[in-house]
């Protein structure tokens, strides 16, 4: 039986390179609470990303919760319906009301004009997503936020290592949040990080991720246990040594797909990002004809052939029952986001793929379109 090709597989460096770190943790007896690997990982991660203030945490979702909580928000937050549910779930967990605005058809990110049209006196913030690692219109969103006195937080779960001409895109907004889940370009099994603009904000995040403790007898915040443990921090340090090679292989696969799929009229590929550095974390294609029925038929055919494509992101977040009453999420609203959700199919892309695997994906897609 032909082995399945999943939409992604985690980057796993050689086990023998990780074993010395495991042995060091066993010898130290410290497995959490800001040990040596935790501190070293934060420092090296900051250097790699080109930022000053990084707080590593237990997951990207925890990072979102901490970032939003640190801003003391109340009321409505305008966000994207075209994302993984964790984006909006973080708002519900904090008692904030998600408001959905439509997206741009090229970047698949929040449209600043749609955001501005959704603002009311109850609006307190914008939670934007760098979808597929494509940078948002950061200047447009910043202008909207400034005009209306709103906080601006970026869910940068897809955007590890992405840079524009001025540097990392993580420098925008009040805070940015990364995910290090196993499906991401860079992972620590589970984990994440909050990127702060200054030392005071990082201190606030660090208090919140550790129950609000300053020392053994001083608690200043109603925090949570959001820390990253030593094993995952050690793994993250090792991953930093391999991630550039992994991104380069992803770039090669991206180019392979584009060359092979360029003349297929039934689909269009995501536009090549115009950034100084991209991470090639996803390869979505969009069905130009036949709508959802054609896409779903291709989805079923390709999976039957062992090519485990995914519909990222379908359904829209706004279509899930817990968001039925959310403003902006009605079925007739969000026409661009809905069109994307009904036509998208993400192809397998990960550094362990051989060229023959990529050919198999292309052949399966062409057969599904025939």
Briefly summarize what is shown.
Helix content is 39%, strand content 16%. It has helices spanning 15-28, 36-49, 60-70, 86-93, 112-118, 138-148, 199-208, 230-261, 291-304, 335-343, 355-369, and strands at residues 5-6, 53-57, 76-79, 97-100, 123-129, 151-155, 163-164, 167-168, 175-179, 192-196, 213-215, 218-219, 267-269, 284-287, 307-308, 344-346.
CATH homology-level superfamily of the largest domain = Type I PLP-dependent aspartate aminotransferase-like (Major domain)
Number of helices: 11
The shape is globular
Q: State the CATH topology of the largest domain.
A: Aspartate Aminotransferase, domain 2
Query: What is the domain total for the residues?
Result: 2
The residue ranges in which pLDDT falls below 50 over 5 or more consecutive positions are none
Q: What is the share of helical residues?
A: 25-40%
Strand/helix succession:
EHHEHEHEHEHEEEEEHEEHEEHEHEH
CATH-defined architecture of the largest domain:
3-Layer(aba) Sandwich
CATH class of the largest domain: Alpha Beta
Using only CA atoms, what is the Rg? 21 Å
Number of strands: 16
Cα-to-Cα separation, first versus last residue: 24 Å
Report the major sheet: 7 strands, mixed
- The overall pLDDT average reads 97
- Derived from helix and strand composition plus strand pairing, the structural class reads alpha/beta
What do you see in this structure?
With 370 residues, this protein is of the alpha/beta class. It has two domains: 15-238, Type I PLP-dependent aspartate aminotransferase-like (Major domain) (Aspartate Aminotransferase, domain 2); 243-369, Aspartate Aminotransferase, domain 1 (Alpha-Beta Complex), CATH 3.90.1150. It has eleven helices and 16 strands. The strands form five sheets. A seven-stranded mixed sheet has the order 2-10-9-6-5-3-4, sandwiched between helices. It has a three-stranded antiparallel sheet with strand order 13-14-16. The protein has a two-stranded parallel ribbon with strand order 1-15. Helix 1 (15-28) runs antiparallel to helix 8 and helix 3 crosses helix 7. The model has no long low-confidence stretch (mean pLDDT 97).
């Amino acid at each position: 039986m032909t082995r399945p090709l999943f939409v992604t597989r985690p980057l796993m460096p050689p086990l023998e390179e990780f074993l010395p770190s495991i042995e060091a943790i066993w010898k130290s007896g410290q497995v959490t609470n800001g040990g040596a690997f935790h501190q070293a990982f934060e420092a090296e991660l900051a250097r790699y990303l080109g930022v000053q203030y990084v707080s590593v945490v237990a997951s990207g979702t925890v990072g979102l919760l901490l970032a939003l909580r640190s801003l003391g928000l109340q009321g409505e937050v305008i966000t994207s319906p075209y994302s993984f549910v964790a984006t909006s779930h973080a708002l519900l967990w904090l008692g904030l009301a998600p408001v959905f605005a439509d997206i741009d058809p090229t970047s698949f990110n929040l449209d600043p004009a749609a955001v501005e049209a959704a603002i009311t006196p109850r609006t307190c913030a914008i939670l934007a997503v760098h979808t597929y690692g494509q940078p948002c219109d950061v200047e447009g969103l910043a202008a909207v936020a400034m005009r209306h006195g709103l906080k601006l937080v970026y869910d940068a779960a897809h955007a590890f290592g992405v840079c524009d001409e001025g540097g990392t895109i993580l420098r925008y907004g009040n805070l940015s949040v990364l995910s290090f889940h196993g499906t991401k370009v860079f992972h620590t099994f589970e984990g994440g990080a909050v990127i702060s603009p200054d030392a005071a904000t990082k201190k606030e995040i660090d208090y919140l991720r550790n129950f609000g403790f300053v020392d053994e007898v001083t608690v200043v915040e109603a925090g949570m246990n959001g820390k990253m443990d030593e094993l995952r921090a050690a793994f993250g340090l090792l991953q930093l040594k391999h991630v550039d090679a992994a991104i380069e292989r992803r770039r090669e696969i991206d180019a392979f797909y584009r060359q092979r799929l360029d003349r297929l009229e039934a689909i269009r590929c995501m536009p090549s990002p115009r950034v100084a550095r991209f991470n090639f974390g996803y390869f979505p294609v969009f069905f130009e004809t036949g709508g959802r029925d054609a896409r779903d038929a291709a989805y079923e055919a390709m999976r039957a052939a062992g090519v485990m494509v995914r519909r990222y992101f379908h359904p829209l977040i706004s279509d899930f029952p817990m968001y039925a009453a959310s403003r902006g999420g009605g079925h007739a609203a969000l026409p661009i986001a809905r069109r994307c959700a009904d036509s998208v199919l993400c192809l397998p892309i990960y550094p362990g793929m051989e060229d023959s695997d990529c050919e198999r994906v292309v052949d399966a897609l062409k057969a599904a379109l025939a």
